[in-house]
Amino acid sequence: MDFEFQKQELDGVYLISSEKKIDERGYLCELFRKDVFLKNGIDVDFVQENFSYSEYKTLRGLHYQKNPHAQDKLIYVNYGSILDVVVDLRKDSKTFGKYLKFELDSEKPCFLYVPKGFAHGFLTLSDFACVTYKLSSYYQPDFEDGIVWNDEVLNIDWEVDFDPILSNKDKNLPKFDVNVKL
């Protein structure tokens, strides 16, 4: 099966599509192949995989793990549709503080690869969404951090005309800090 890697404006971020093999039963597509990722310059060892179920209007994020437990992520929507947002927090990057957003949908086998050094969050656009993400480092609560979703400096356009559903933790995340420590 074939993969297509689309390099994005923020260095290290890729939108990856996988070929569907369709027949009368449905379809099959590969979600990850280490050899293909290596050929495309991504050398990552995933050690944890998470699954989330989110109702319509749920916003999760913006989250990240600080060093030495920073995480590469591979995000895939199993069911539904989300608006996925990544923010570059790498101080030495020419795109520090910039963001990208992607609509990911289960109808298209498309994945988002996000390297270490980025905050990540998503908003559920469908009645509900099931999202799987692979991580290169184990979750460590003491190294978890985040940025409030509606930070004025980042000014992310979430394309919503409603108040999203947030966890208490996400409601109280700090604002973007140009002196962020990863």
Mind explaining what this structure looks like?
The protein has 182 residues and is mainly β. The chain has one domain: Jelly Rolls (Sandwich). It contains 2 helices and 13 strands, in the order E-E-E-E-H-E-E-E-E-E-E-E-E-E-H. The model has no long low-confidence stretch (mean pLDDT 94).
What structural keywords apply?
182 residues; mainly beta; Jelly Rolls; six-stranded antiparallel beta sheet; five-stranded antiparallel beta sheet; 2 helices
List the helices and strands and how they pair.
Blueprint: E1 3-7, E2 14-18, E3 21-23, E4 26-28, H1 34-39, E5 48-55, E6 59-65, E7 73-79, E8 81-88, E9 99-105, E10 110-114, E11 118-124, E12 128-135, E13 144-146, H2 168-171
Antiparallel strand pairs: 1-2, 2-10, 3-4, 5-12, 6-11, 6-13, 7-10, 7-12, 8-9, 8-11
| Proportion of residues in β-strands | 35-45%
Major sheet description: 6 strands, antiparallel
As for the number of domains, it is: 1
Q: Which word captures the global form?
A: globular
Q: Which CATH architecture?
A: Sandwich
The secondary-structure element order is EEEEHEEEEEEEEEH
Overall number of strands: 13
Low-confidence stretches: none
Helix content: under 10%
Content-based structural category:
mainly beta
Name given to the CATH homologous superfamily: Jelly Rolls
Strand order of the largest sheet: 1-2-10-7-12-5
Name the CATH class. Mainly Beta
Radius of gyration over C-alpha positions, nearest whole angstrom: 16 Å
- Termini separation comes to 36 Å
Number of helices: 2
Overall pLDDT metric: 94
